[in-house]
Amino acid sequence: MREDVYQDLEGDFLAQVEDILERTTLKSQRDKQLQTVMTTFERENLTCCIHLGTYEKSPRLLPCLHHLCDDCLTALMRNSITFRCPLCMKKYMVPWKGVEAFKQDPRLMSLRNKLKQAMSNRRTTLRQLLHSALLPW
Hints:
Layout: H1 2-23, H2 27-45, E1 60-61, E2 67-68, H3 70-77, E3 82-84, E4 91-93, H4 106-120, H5 126-133
Antiparallel strand pairs: 1-2, 3-4
Helix pairs in contact: 1-2, 4-5
């Protein structure tokens, strides 16, 4: 099921970028639209829903498949035996190992780093961006 989530994420992103490539002829307008798509993608998929910052290290994956950063997950679990996912409100017992009990998701971090690198590299062509920013499934 988790693989499907990543494939959908990749497919949606690719569809948006391909749409911009096909519809827009002016380079400056295309670059602006691509930057908007990238920023939206990062905000919606690579941002902690609690502190609203981008993940600085691999986020933790909850059983409901939502991600949280270590610090926010630790704060959620502090002084309690249960906590709720802030997105779907599913209730979980605080594991004996704490945050470490939840697996990190390095693929999400890898995607974020590749997108950042592609966005900051002015010499990267759009086709290179598509092939370098997205992970092979």
